[in-house]
Amino acid sequence: MSGGPRFEYLWADGQKFKKPTPLPAREYISHLMDWIEMQINNQDLFPCTSDRPFPRNFPNLCSKILARLHRVFVHVYIHHFQNIVTIAAEAHVNTCYKHFYYFVTEFQLVSQKELEPLGEMAARICKDPST
Q1: 99 known ligand binder
Q2: Which domains, from first to last, does the chain contain?
Q3: Is the pTM of this model over 0.85?
């Protein structure tokens, strides 16, 4: 899956795709959603009761999930934004991205390097909420 000419996202899940593998966006996103569902449904990773502790790698796992979801935003904005405009959904998609951006930056869950592909856009639409 690509995020324009400068960014290529390879899929690896440690099971079926042990090595980073180029995939079309549709397959990358499908594998991503399946992978996220498996992580969230694994009670060793996302415990459902207060008597089970969260694993030590929980923050890293959340960061990985959110970084991969950000890549979907990158792909959609770069390759499909005109389709979003055509159906008059740009305000909705921008609002979704802003909520995502504010959350991951507030809690430092996605690196600046990972946010770079949409950095210019984020600077325009995601104003510092404290000002």
Answers
A1: no
A2: 10-125 (1.20.140.30)
A3: yes
